[in-house]
Structures are given as C-alpha cells and as structure tokens.
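Feature request, filed as a ticket because there's no other form

It would be nice if the structure record came with a short human-readable summary line next to the tokens. Right now we just get the raw output. Example of a typical job, pasted below so the devs can see what we mean:
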Amino acid sequence: MGRGDGSGRVVSADGADDSGTGILHVDMDAFYASVEQLDDPSLIGKAIIVGAPDGRSVVSSASYEARRFGVRSAMPVGQALRLCPTAVVVRPHFERYLAVSSQVMRIFRDITPLVEPLSIDEAFLDVRGARRLWGSPGHIALMLRQRVRDETGLTCSVGVAATKHVAKMASTLSKPDGMLIVAAADTEAFLAPRSVRALWGVGPKASEALEGRGIRTIADVLDAPREVLDRALGPAMGDRVWHLARGIDAREVDTERVEKSVGHEETFDQDIGDAVVLRSELRRLADRVGARLRANGWEASTVAIKVRFSDFTTISRSQTLAEPTAVGQRIGDAAHELFGSVERALPVRLIGVRAERLRPAGVAAPTLWDDDEGWRRIEDALDGATAKFGRGAVTRATLLGSRGGGSVPTSPPAPRFDHG
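Raw output as currently delivered:
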C-alpha cells in the first residue's frame, strides 16, 4: 500500500478500463491541514501540524510535507516537532471542518443518492445507477474530483472498483490527489502483491498472526489452506480474510449507516489530581456528547469513560443505561458513577466521555414516567441558545471557574466519526 506521506502513489492512466466497476471510495487529502492551508495561503507548501501548540496534545492532522518526516495523526505534538522541527503548528478549527465536510457530502449526493459517509472526510458512493446521467464510473470519478476542487478548493483521492474493499484500497494507493481504477477482471492481479496489512479490517494483531505463519501478501493468503487461516485468526476472521483476498465483498453501500459512538475527550495542560475538577470536566464533556446526539437524532444505550494517568496508563469503564438517552445530565450522571469506581493513585492526563450503542431517537415505546423530561426541556433550550449565540454562550454555573490552577484543557480533538 501507499505510505501516509504519499510515496508509492499509484494512479490510473487516462481512459483506464473501468468495466465491471461501480463503487467509489472518496477520501479527502490531509483534510484538516488542507482546510487550514486553504484558509491561510501562506501555509501552502509548508509542513503543517494541526493540534494545540503544546507538547502534551496530539496531532489531529498533518500536511504531506510534515508526513514525509514521519509525522502521523494521534502522535503527541512534542514528538511530531522533534521529527519535524520546522513544522508550523496550527490550532484546529473543527466547526470549519464540519462545514466543509457538509459541502463535500452535498457534492457526493448531487451525483448519487447512494452515499455512505465513513467519517468527516471520506465516503463510499454507489454510482451503478448513475451511468445514464453521468457516464461510466471512471468518468464520474473524474467529474467528482473536479467538482470538489472547483467548489471547495480542496483535493480528494478516489478508488474505483467492483467492491467497497477494493475501492478503499485503491483510493489509499492513489493519495494524494489521485484516482486509481481497478476493473473487475483485474481484481485478483491488483490484490495479489499487496501486504496482508492492506486488507480492510485486518489490524496489527491479525497481521502479525498471519506473518508469523509466513503469510505476508494477499497471494500468500490465496495459497494458504483454509484451516491455517482459521487457526491463525479464528473461524470468523479467517472466513472474512479468505473472501476479501479473492475480491469477494458482498457489502452494499449503506445510506442508513450511523455512528456507532460519539465521544469527546480532553488532554490537560497539567496533570490533575483534584477530583472536583475532574468531575466538573466529565460533566462538561457529557453535555457536549448529549448535544451531538440530539443534533443528529440519536440516543445512546451505553456510556463509557476513558481516563489516562500521568504515566500514560489508560483505563476505560462502561455502563449500560436503563433507558437510551440523549440527555447530557443523564450521561454525566453515568460518567460520574463510572469515575467513582476508578482507583486513582496518580494524577490524570486525559479524560473522556463516550456514548455508545446508538439508535435513532424516539423509537422506544413511551413509558408511564419520563425521568428525563425536565432536563430534556432545559437542554432543548440550551441547544436553541447555542444555535443562536454559539457554543459556550450558556453553560452550567458549576462549570464556571472549575478549571483553575493552570489546568485548562487543550483544544479538544476533532469530533471523530467512529465506525469501529
């Protein structure tokens, strides 16, 4: 596969054969960093790190110029600056990224209604039914890339294939600003030389299990007896890898797909041992999670917290709710209860709240008593105030001044679309 810095890039020639294809995977190039360069042209061509300008925060995104030094997303900013001392650190502007993402997704839906967003900056498109209107899948991909460039000023990379799995692999290989078409008849030849690590959904542990048995490429998977795959990976994953290695992927583009979880977390400028401050921060994060759930029409059945201590030890705890909710107060109550079960021998470096097992709001049968009714009215009013005056215009009195002592959190990481 291509590396994250753009080396090893493979693209299709003009007029490449697209027979048997119909699935596009579109991935915006270094999205956050590219938006920052778009908004500040003086940053174009420079090594850019998007993140809070302190060594304790993490990299949200990096330009390709920075990636060539080994900078990667989720890397501590301090480490990134050691790898690339000349990099410019730019604070993230998440509301701007969300606005641009909405613009990009509208372009996709102008071309086909069959769009499955995977995250803020990538999506699958099924264009098999759009041929009469727009032309062949390869032509549609070219048109889409041009529209994205013309209407947003940004670039994207597109994989065109017969299946979602192969289309995603192709888009990764073509980055940045490229397009790679894999005709249906060429699927096996395309897959065979690739590393097993390129298979979608095969993580580091599974890859190591395969490589430990001498199975390093997809061609090796094709040659391996089925029982060897099952022993290495377990029957379910073995079956999946067996099919994917042969280009068999029955998954359709799912326009109803929703996030599996929604979360927010904070990395503190200084490690915090004060339980009052930490509980206040959990409450603030829970309110943000609840607001996102309501904005997207979801409810959560499970609440989880994440706590990272000063020695980087990280623990998580989760709790299934009696009834699904999108009420921040209820989410915060659960987060406090979970936090109370955590043994804290060391100060806390990072804390987070996540809502899991999401479902559309309002699908449950009404109950005789609604314990959240009062809080729901209050939070609906807060949502209205936020829409009118911006986030932070109205907040809990208990949150005011609760982060004193130089322990103000850094800018939070981007609201990620976590699809597992």
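Something like this underneath would help us a lot:
The first strand starts at residue 23 and ends at 28.
The chain has three domains: 29-164, 192-245, 261-399.
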